[in-house]
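Re: weekly structure request thread

Next one in the queue (46 aa):
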Amino acid sequence: MKITRWLYKLARLSRDAEVLSSGDPKKIARHAKNKLLGRRLFRKLW
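Done, posted below.
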């Protein structure tokens, strides 16, 4: 279970780095917005 959790965390960090390295402000803003919305929705479910 710990390995799977670690791999998912690594994948999310990799996606964050990919979006930031693109340098596209629209893509960065959309990614940040979606992360915040996803966290809020997840908190409401739990």
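The helical segments are 2-22, 25-45. The chain has one domain: 2-45.
Next request, please.
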